[in-house]
Amino acid sequence: MTTTVGMPAHLAHPFSPAGRADPYPAYDWLREHAPVFHDPMARMWLVTSHADCAALLRDPAFSASAGQRQRTREDDLPVSMLTSDGADHARLRAPGALLLGPGALADVADGTAVDVAEILDRFTAPGARVADAVEEIGVPLSTAVLARLFGLDTTQRETFARLARAASVNLDPLAPPQIARLGRAAMGELTRFLDAHIPQAQGSPLGKLAADGRLTRTEVLGVLGLAVVGGWQPLAEAIGNALYWLLPHPDAVTALRAGGEQAGLLAMDELLRLEAPIPFTARVTVTDAELPGGRIPAGARVLAVVAAANRDPAVFREPGGLVLDRSPNPHLAFGGGPHFCLAARLVRQTGAQLLTRLVRRYPAAALAGPAPRWSGSLIPRRLTSLSVHLGESAGEAARA
Ligand code: HEM
């Protein structure tokens, strides 16, 4: 049944300043009392249970392109698979796998392993024991992964990271108009940078995508722009979010250190479940829609709140706690249905590799003050910074 009751006054709305810091009490209430909720404040529908979110993401009544076409024309930016439906979407997504799918992952794996080692090496110098996990670990990792996919050399990484950061404001659908305008301008600059780079990208996954011929140059640029805006910051933030949950649990750290590759992948999934960097994704209904938890009329703006679905007690035992080896773990942090994150394997693998190597290399790693704060941005869900005291590296401890 669709519920039209309001949220209790004592709960901070998830988009209010207090709710942005801690949206989970409101998500819990919504999931339990109104899993398909018309929110008069946001003038959107919020869908919060796992069953409803999973159904919504697969239902063609919920369009990813409706409401986007006008904006795309105004921007003069390439069309994105994320905001396409049906055959248009499939046509863009299939070649996109050359950039982000299993073959691409195999192409970049050796390089990203070197990058991970280099990032962790930076903290062995005396006085460099405290790291901001967001800026000094997550951002370099994410920059390195995208640079490998795009065939950028190390001298281009700084420029790329600056452009990626500026363009990333396009992720937040609720960004104020003046910020959104700046984001679109930054997107234009990023697109020109990548366009000029394509001829030098041979041999990399980007080179393979560009040479494939199924997409026009403009469409290739659309895939690249989406990979940057949809991927660079979420991957960077996922590392801070993960360490925020992992490091206060010594048993979990010990298990991760001792476990193999599979344990690392399960851990990464669980950490993404608990603190999804992309907490919700938007759709517009093109017909009346029926979900297990209620009906939504045609023409409605709808958010699939995957961060709420990921803590649904109907699906996850101990939904608000860390169960590092949780399996199965049907979290929706990568979405679901036709738009399921094209880079999910890449993210799981590189994230797992970084976390596992970090706790092996720095066995005493622990959160350091000051207490971390959640940023006011809605997407991605991110910490403004996360101080981590790394302590001695394993090699030093062994030598001592
Ligand atoms: C922790 C990091 C990441 C998270 C949590 C994440 C999450 C998501 C989610 C939830 C969607 C679906 C959106 C929707 O249904 O509207 C998505 C789609 C997508 N993601 Fe990711 N993502 C991450 C990293 C990346 C990276 C690093 C890349 C590329 C380098 C990437 C590329 C894409 C693409 C291309 C799509 C669109 C797929 C389609 O429309 O068919 N993502 N991602």
Structural write-up:
With 400 residues, the chain is α+β, with helices and mostly antiparallel strands. 51% of the residues lie in helices and 8% in strands. The protein has one domain: Cytochrome p450 (Orthogonal Bundle), CATH 1.10.630.10. The protein has a five-stranded mixed β-sheet, covered by helices on one side. The protein has a three-stranded antiparallel β-sheet with strand order 4-10-9. A two-stranded antiparallel ribbon has the order 6-7. Helix 9 crosses helix 11. It is globular, with a radius of gyration of 21 Å. The termini are far apart. The relative contact order is 0.17.
At a glance:
This protein has 400 residues and is an alpha+beta fold. It has helices at 17-21, 24-33, 50-58, 69-75, 86-100, 102-121, 133-150, 157-167, 177-197, 205-212, 217-246, 250-258, 261-274, 306-309, 344-361, 394-399; strands at 36-39, 44-47, 62-63, 130-132, 281-285, 289-291, 294-296, 301-304, 366-367, 387-389. The chain has a single domain, classed as Cytochrome p450, CATH 1.10.630.
